Amino acid sequence: MSAGWPGRAEEPIEEPMLRSREREARIPLGSLDPAIIHRARAINADALRAIDDLLDQISDPGRR
Amino acid sequence: MDLDGAALSGFADLTFALERECRLIGELHRAILQQREAVAQGDVPGVESSIRLGSRALLTLQETRRHRATLLRRLVGDPAQPLADLDTHFDAALPETFLAARRQVQSSAAKVAQEIWRNQEVLLGALRERDALLRELLTGSRPTAPAEPPPAATAEA
Q1: What's the number of domains chain B is made of?
Q2: pLDDT in tens, B44-100
Q3: B51 in contact with A, Cβ within 8 Å
Q4: ipTM of the complex
Q5: Does B9 reside within a domain?
Q6: Closest residue of B to A55, CA-based?
Q7: Contacts of B90 (CB under 8 A, 6+ apart)
Q8: Which of B19-28 are b and which e, b meaning 16 or more Cβ less than 10 Å from the residue's Cβ?
Q9: Which chain B residues are Cβ-neighbours of A30 within 8 angstroms?
Q10: Which residues of chain B neighbour A51 with C-beta distances below 8 Å?
Q11: Is B153 within the bounds of a domain?
């Protein structure tokens, strides 16, 4: 038997609404941990360095 | 230097290495596009997967770079010889297949560099957006741009 009034267990439980679904939809990356964003940025920075080195090796002397 | 049989064989190996680098740059490109899409969707496994794919492509690119250095040392005696200046070592025109592979790598590398820059901006924007959201949750209001000054009052008769 549940506490409160009879039939309380059947009452729909209202979800806490910190922000509306509309708001949720327009906030990007709500579920992404900043750590994963930093990891992605770090690997991208490594990739940029590698590609820049490659372009230095391969491009015309004017670029270097 | 003559473009003799040994040199032509060296250029064939170098061309093959460049074609491999081009394919790896293509893999990196796909990983970068996947990353951007996953970030836009807030898709954590997608971002993780793109990081793995990008890291793998990058590691293999570093390996091919070392291999290219070995081939260059064999061909002209200098592992750091810029590919752009290779023709200064030879009396004849370089093989067209090599020149085409070099152009292809250059073009692919320039394109992927632009895409990576775009992702860096997107990721930075995501971090800023998240910070703004946290501030909003803590303070109850979003930081807003400074209000525009009111329009100048018009003189009335």
Answers
A1: 1
A2: 899 999 999 999 999 999 999 999 999 999 999 999 999 998 988 888 899 999 999
A3: yes
A4: 0.80
A5: yes
A6: B106
A7: B1, B2, B3, B7
A8: ebbbebbebb
A9: 42, 133
A10: 25, 28, 109, 112-113, 116
A11: no
